[in-house]
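STRUCTURE:
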């Protein structure tokens, strides 16, 4: 019999290998995201490896105080991998503007790591006796802190600008899976469920990260055509207007200054538009020089913002020394209008605006 061989840990390592290979070959992921995913994967691989070692010691070594100490040390190393894995994912999602939840998350992760290290020398979370593991009361706090850190991480994911209903659904399953694992660990000492739950959560987290980047325009940082199509396909009557925007000078920039300068011009324009409409709705880059804003604001409010930008004539200086020149059209949703019909109205208004500018 090979009781010491834990196939659940082998499944966990297989999941880690699968995710790491996908991440390494995903051209859309930023370097920092890839690095975070890989480091988290390494932490989980160490967790699964030491968990297998725990069973080898349990089945192969005689019961003694020394065996209990070794089992406790191995378990502490296993648990120490959880805050390490969380910290790297937390770094991926932490927004540039720190909020209280970020400090709470970091403090929680540090506390988890410190408690695991202390437990090596003094059992405050769990202990081993006759080769069996037993939780101490403080361990419940550890489980709660772990889930709090995980929830903060999910909150950062859901608050990402390109997060939509699909990503929210996926993030919910990540949280539920993690919760079931922690619950099984605390109530039934079912660590296999916890470790597999971590592996499944790791896979789902990668899928969520990948989806976010797949819906993000690499150049402008705005939600891209993919995100736009999915938003339009599932959009309900929770908007009032749609604005179509088309840059006027991009071809000239590309022809006279080169495509590199054209890309900088797109970046400056998109960032300036995003800043101006930050409180007005969700802005997408849907083509080379085309943008779409889905808004709850009135036509008059959105028109005032557009005219103010055009009157100023310059992109925000922090994005480069570029003029701003675009045509725009606003479609207003009337009772019974479909999203495609409002888009058509906005598109027609935008092209009419462009023709007027060309005649001037």
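SEQUENCE:
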């Amino acid at each position: 019999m090979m009781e010491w061989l834990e196939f659940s840990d082998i499944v966990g390592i297989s999941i880690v290998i699968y995710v790491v290979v996908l991440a390494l070959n995903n051209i859309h992921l930023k370097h920092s995201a890839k690095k975070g995913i890989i480091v988290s994967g390494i932490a989980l691989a160490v967790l699964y490896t030491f968990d297998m070692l725990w069973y080898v010691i349990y089945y192969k070594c005689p019961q003694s105080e020394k065996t209990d100490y070794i089992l406790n040390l191995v378990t502490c190393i296993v648990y120490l991998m959880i805050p390490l894995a969380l910290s790297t994912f937390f770094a991926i999602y932490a927004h540039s503007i720190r909020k209280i939840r970020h400090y709470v998350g970091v403090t929680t992760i540090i506390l988890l790591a410190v408690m695991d290290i202390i437990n090596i020398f003094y059992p405050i979370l769990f202990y081993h006796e006759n080769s069996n593991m037993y939780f101490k009361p403080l361990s419940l706090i550890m489980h709660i802190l772990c889930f709090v850190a995980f929830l903060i991480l999910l909150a950062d994911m859901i608050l990402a600008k390109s997060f939509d209903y699909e990503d929210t659904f996926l993030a919910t399953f990540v949280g539920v899976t993690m919760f079931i694992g922690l619950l099984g660990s605390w109530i039934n000492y079912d660590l296999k469920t916890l470790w597999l739950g971590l592996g499944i959560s790791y896979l789902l987290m990668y899928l969520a990260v990948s989806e976010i980047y797949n819906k993000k325009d690499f150049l402008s940082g705005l939600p891209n055509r993919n995100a736009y199509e999915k938003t339009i396909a599932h959009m309900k009557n929770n908007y009032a207007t749609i604005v179509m925007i088309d840059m006027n000078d991009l071809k000239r920039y590309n022809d006279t200054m080169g495509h590199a300068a054209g890309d900088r011009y797109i970046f400056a324009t998109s960032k300036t538009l995003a800043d101006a409409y930050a409180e007005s709705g969700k802005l997408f880059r849907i083509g080379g020089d085309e943008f779409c804003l889905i808004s709850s604001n009135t036509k008059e409010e959105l028109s005032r913002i557009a005219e103010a930008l055009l009157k100023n004539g310059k992109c925000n200086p922090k994005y480069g020394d570029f003029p701003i020149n675009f045509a725009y059209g606003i479609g207003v949703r009337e009772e019974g209008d479909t999203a495609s019909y409002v888009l058509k109205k906005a598109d027609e208004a935008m092209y009419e605006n462009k023709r007027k500018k060309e005649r001037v």
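REMARK: The chain has twelve helices and six strands.
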